[in-house]
Amino acid sequence: MGIDKYEIVIGCEIHTQLLTATKAFCACENRYGGMPDTRVCPVCLGLPGAMPRVSKGYVELGAVAGQALNCRIARFTKFDRKHYFYPDLAKGYQITQYDIPLCSDGYVDLPFTHFPEEERPGGKKFRPDNFKGENCVIGGSYRRVRVERIHLEEDVGKSLHFEGKHSYIDYNRCGTPLIEIVTKPDISSPDEASLFMQTVQEILRYVRVTKGNLEEGNMRCDANINLNVWENGKLYHTPISEIKNLNSFRSIREACSYEAERQLHEFETDRKEFEPGYKNTMTWDEEKGVTAVMRTKNSFVDYRFVVEPDIKPFSVSESLIEDARKAVGELPEAKRTRFKKEFALSDFDAETLTSTRELAMWFEEAAKNSKSAKRVANLILSELLAVLNEKNQTIDEIKITPLHIAELADALESNKITSKQGKEVFALMLEKNLLPSVIIKEEGFEQVSDANAIEKIVDDVISANPKAVSDFKGGKTNVVGWLMGQVMKQSRGKADPNQASALLNKKLSVL
Ligand SMILES: [Zn+2]
């Protein structure tokens, strides 16, 4: 007797708020926070007789998300009512999409470079297929997670519980436009679930459909998880748990890890097995680090879905779909691959420079205007990002342009200025918002690369320091560094250090 092995099976449902100006079906402003119940109206409160209207941009943004996640977009669709009673849902039903989702049959490819070594091709725990035995490795470099559907639905209000006192409801969030992204159960580890959510966040931010801010609840994940357990050669499935409202990458990872352990233990002790339609709904208690059962339910619970009678079913035009495709543009992974090839960047540099679409565009603009993309990358990575971090700014908020960095990179590359001067130019450039060429001229930073001038300085330094020279001849080669320092000092930092050093070494060796 005993368990031979087990594998984890996870499917995700990610709720993402969209960046429309107004709520999904009314004119209330779509924004986070504020005084409770200050952005509500008869429509989002579901008062009798109020008529919903689909807000401008809602279907469009949903289609952009669908295109970005490689989905098919429905040419005809509709909204439905899902009935259930919950205090944060004032009207007693949610407007959602039931049997004709706007988007379906998509996928997200996760790069193996983000997996632990042992789970990559060739590794000990590498798995080329999903739990159904279907291949999910793409081009040897990616593991594919299939997206079953993306549908449109409205968010509910927020319950606020004050310990030992009362519960309150804030309806500001009620009616916020959401998409729900539902995957196939293709995810096989807690780390992969977390990586999936990070990747989706990055993509949806890139295509500007969401702020993707997890702290503000712009994105929340429900994870469906169970185990395949082999015992004495026989395969068993454990009951599915749905862990609700995971709102950080860490909580997804930790909740799934905990739940997998718990299910394994439960299987060993209680022999509980999967039953079709049965599911545990759970919460994740972040502080205690445990999952807890909220309710157990049959998933065929009757939500009494009906077509939303107040919104006509509608066609999705070819031009809307085409516009959505254009809005997607180049996605982060494709950009990284291209940057590595075009600009000879390392994995890490490409990763950082493409972390937001704005930064990637900024870098590319600078790189195209410079003779050395590598130097541009270094300046951004080592200097500019540090400043942005310190000031808590984004690349859009700084005054200097890509051309500033391109000029600075070229001045350094052509040895017009030393790297030390480069730092000064960089600081002045941020402060005065002047182009490096202007600063270099104003400050008299032009580096001396005139061979005659440098030779004269080297000769002067050698003749002024006979002691150092005799030490050198006596075998103390480390005095070269000191002499080099004297050369740079005499040139007031303007001598091209490479040239000066070569000349100094040459002169000393023939003395
Ligand atoms: Zn409203």
UniProtKB/TrEMBL annotation:
Q: Per the record, what are the reactions this protein catalyses?
A: L-glutamyl-tRNA(Gln) + L-glutamine + ATP + H2O = L-glutaminyl-tRNA(Gln) + L-glutamate + ADP + phosphate + H(+); L-aspartyl-tRNA(Asn) + L-glutamine + ATP + H2O = L-asparaginyl-tRNA(Asn) + L-glutamate + ADP + phosphate + 2 H(+)
> Source organism's superkingdom?
Bacteria
What GO terms describe the biological role, i.e. biological process, of this protein?
A: translation
The enzyme's first-digit EC class, named in words, is ligase
Residue intervals of the Asn/Gln amidotransferase domain: 361-508
Keyword Cell membrane attached: no
Q: Which UniProt key words apply to this protein? A: ATP-binding, Ligase, Nucleotide-binding, Protein biosynthesis
Q: What is its EC number?
A: 6.3.5.-
- Keyword presence, Nucleotide-binding: yes
For this UniProt entry, the molecular function terms from Gene Ontology, in alphabetical order, are: ATP binding; glutaminyl-tRNA synthase (glutamine-hydrolyzing) activity
Checking PROSITE patterns in the record gives: GATB (PS01234)
Family that this chain belongs to: Belongs to the GatB/GatE family. GatB subfamily.
Record note on quaternary structure: Heterotrimer of A, B and C subunits.
Q: What does this protein do?
A: Allows the formation of correctly charged Asn-tRNA(Asn) or Gln-tRNA(Gln) through the transamidation of misacylated Asp-tRNA(Asn) or Glu-tRNA(Gln) in organisms which lack either or both of asparaginyl-tRNA or glutaminyl-tRNA synthetases. The reaction takes place in the presence of glutamine and ATP through an activated phospho-Asp-tRNA(Asn) or phospho-Glu-tRNA(Gln).
Q: Mind telling me which NCBIfam families this protein's record contains?
A: gatB, PRK05477.1-2, PRK05477.1-4
Stated name of the protein: Aspartyl/glutamyl-tRNA(Asn/Gln) amidotransferase subunit B
Organism ancestry: Bacteria, Pseudomonadati, Spirochaetota, Spirochaetia, Spirochaetales
State the gene name recorded for this protein: gatB
